[in-house]
Amino acid sequence: MTQAGDPPIAERVVTCPACGGASIYASSNPFRPFCCARCRQLDLGAWASERFKLNVEPSPTPVDDAQ
Ligand SMILES: [Zn+2]
Prior knowledge:
By secondary structure, the chain is of the alpha+beta class. It has a domain at 12-52: Erythroid Transcription Factor GATA-1, Chain A (2-Layer Sandwich). Helix content is 24%, strand content 12%. It has one helix at 37-52; strands at 12-15, 22-25. Strands 1-2 form a two-stranded antiparallel ribbon. A hairpin with a 6-residue loop joins strand 1 (12-15) and strand 2. The longest helix is centred in the middle third of the chain and has 16 residues, at 37-52. The chain starts with 11 loop residues before the first strand and ends in a 15-residue tail after the last helix. Bound molecules: zinc ion. The site of zinc ion has 9 residues, from loops.
Protein backbone atom coordinates (compact mmCIF):
# COMPACT_ATOMS: atom_id res chain seq x y z
CA MET A 1 0.00 0.00 0.00
CA THR A 2 1.24 3.45 -0.84
CA GLN A 3 0.27 6.52 1.05
CA ALA A 4 -0.14 9.51 -1.21
CA GLY A 5 0.10 13.08 -0.01
CA ASP A 6 2.88 12.49 2.48
CA PRO A 7 6.17 12.98 0.68
CA PRO A 8 9.35 12.83 2.72
CA ILE A 9 10.65 16.25 3.64
CA ALA A 10 14.33 16.92 4.09
CA GLU A 11 14.78 17.72 7.74
CA ARG A 12 15.97 21.23 8.42
CA VAL A 13 15.65 23.89 11.07
CA VAL A 14 13.56 26.93 10.32
CA THR A 15 12.40 29.89 12.39
CA CYS A 16 9.06 29.43 14.08
CA PRO A 17 6.78 32.27 12.87
CA ALA A 18 5.05 32.40 16.26
CA CYS A 19 7.83 32.39 18.84
CA GLY A 20 10.85 33.01 16.64
CA GLY A 21 12.57 29.93 18.00
CA ALA A 22 14.02 27.00 16.17
CA SER A 23 11.53 24.69 14.54
CA ILE A 24 12.22 21.35 12.90
CA TYR A 25 10.81 21.47 9.42
CA ALA A 26 10.30 17.81 8.71
CA SER A 27 7.54 15.33 8.05
CA SER A 28 7.92 14.31 11.68
CA ASN A 29 6.73 17.74 12.74
CA PRO A 30 3.00 18.05 11.96
CA PHE A 31 3.01 21.68 13.12
CA ARG A 32 5.63 22.92 10.68
CA PRO A 33 6.64 25.58 10.07
CA PHE A 34 5.75 26.11 13.73
CA CYS A 35 7.74 24.39 16.46
CA CYS A 36 4.75 23.05 18.35
CA ALA A 37 0.95 22.95 18.52
CA ARG A 38 0.88 25.89 20.90
CA CYS A 39 2.72 28.18 18.51
CA ARG A 40 0.44 27.11 15.73
CA GLN A 41 -2.57 28.02 17.85
CA LEU A 42 -1.00 31.31 18.89
CA ASP A 43 -0.41 32.30 15.30
CA LEU A 44 -3.91 31.40 14.22
CA GLY A 45 -5.34 33.33 17.16
CA ALA A 46 -3.12 36.28 16.36
CA TRP A 47 -4.34 36.85 12.84
CA ALA A 48 -7.88 35.96 13.82
CA SER A 49 -8.02 38.60 16.55
CA GLU A 50 -6.25 41.02 14.27
CA ARG A 51 -9.16 40.80 11.92
CA PHE A 52 -11.44 41.80 14.74
CA LYS A 53 -9.53 44.72 16.22
CA LEU A 54 -7.19 46.49 13.87
CA ASN A 55 -6.25 49.27 16.25
CA VAL A 56 -4.88 47.10 19.03
CA GLU A 57 -1.38 47.80 20.27
CA PRO A 58 1.10 44.96 20.25
CA SER A 59 1.80 43.51 23.65
CA PRO A 60 5.37 43.93 24.98
CA THR A 61 5.34 40.30 26.07
CA PRO A 62 4.95 37.97 23.10
CA VAL A 63 4.41 34.79 25.09
CA ASP A 64 2.27 34.46 28.19
CA ASP A 65 2.57 31.24 30.13
CA ALA A 66 -0.40 32.01 32.36
CA GLN A 67 -2.87 30.80 29.81
ZN1 LIG B 1 7.32 28.29 18.28
